[in-house]
Amino acid sequence: MPRKILIIGANAAGINAASAARKTDREAEITLITDEEYPAYSRCGLPFVLAGDIPSFENLIIFPTSYYRMMRLDLRTDTKAKTINPRGKTVLVEGKDEKQKTMEYDSLILTTGAESFCPPIKGRDKDGVLSLRTIEEGKHIHDAMKRAKKAVVVGAGFIGLEMAHAFAEKNIETTIVEMLPCCLPAVLDEDMADLVRREIERHNVRVIVGKGVDEILGDGRVTGVFVAGEEIPADIVLLACGVRARNELAEKAGIEMGATRAIKVSHRMETSMPDIYAAGDCIESTDMITGRPTLSQLGTTAVRQGKVAGINAAGGYSIFPGVLGSAVTRIFGFEVGATGLTESRARAGRVGLKTVSGKITAKTKPEYFPGGKEITVKIVIESESERIVGGQIVGGEGVAQRINMISLAIQKGATVWDLGKADTCYAPPVADTWEPVALASELAGLKIRR
User: Which burial class, exposed, middle or buried, applies to 118 when counting CB atoms under 10 A from its CB (0-12, 13-18, 19+)?
Assistant: First the structure.
């Protein structure tokens, strides 16, 4: 009998799990179910559709229906998993017609993802208070933007900043409100975040940090927000306060949760229940540097974890090494990226590393060649071992591949001296003789010597 593999969730982790399972077991019966109308689309692209950089939401759909037929994947949209019976190895599902059906499995993969977190702000239930996680929510925001003149974005993470960029591109007067002391507080130190804030403010977007929204105003429909006693008018309030793992289904089935309240898995993506695997935004990952539990709710993490889960669920063998949280974006004409630990996180509480850092501002091309853009690189080093533990970059271009370079250096246990002596390339139209990442590493090394 062919192996029955059932995957709950059909986005980044789910579709990569299905593809990997099919390549591992050519005969398996593989079924994907999702409670959304659209399968396997890029959530990360949603703000850029709203900004006008991508023509339509349909462009975000990764695979045509022919792909699922070619891979012999049974895709069921608008279908919700209600309960899991681990002993009987069955899942109760409900279709769009509200009819319920019991589905059997030999291997089950949970890729249930995450959902937008809505903080307990007074007035959050008013019309015009929106969040962005799905295509449907993107369409609601798109319609609201047609009438809006002012917007407030609550939260200065990647989605918050990308949505502020989208609003500004459509000439909507925008204010960002972040309760923590700086923009992108999870991935940037305050000195680097200050560069981001200044760049955003150059585009006539107001940034308020260190203060929260006390109340959302309006009689039924939003008219503004109160922030530290100040009333800020708004036609749209976009809540971008992060996401929470969707793990209710797993919890009801008795699957163990981790320290972060997401699903706990092994390095093979195995849950605490036999033959049940999990991957993506719903699970807890392991930080490569500290070895501690962490959340890495990124598309890149989801696809790699999905591949590992799919291979193992189909009878193969694969392991997931952990995460560094490497991330990048482009907003307001400049790029921001980070990987590994910030200085503040490295030094904090349970991590407690002693660090030094090197930071340099340089150009992406030689001074004599037209078109070079300014870029600021910060390298974070653990003092005793002299190992690289983090990197942050803000600049006009070339950020993504430099972050990839630092990420690989961290994974390979490179020291500040290794990166400082990297054999990098040079040609006037594309790169200077001195690579900014290497220069920042040299500066950090000099601090260690002193």
Answer: middle
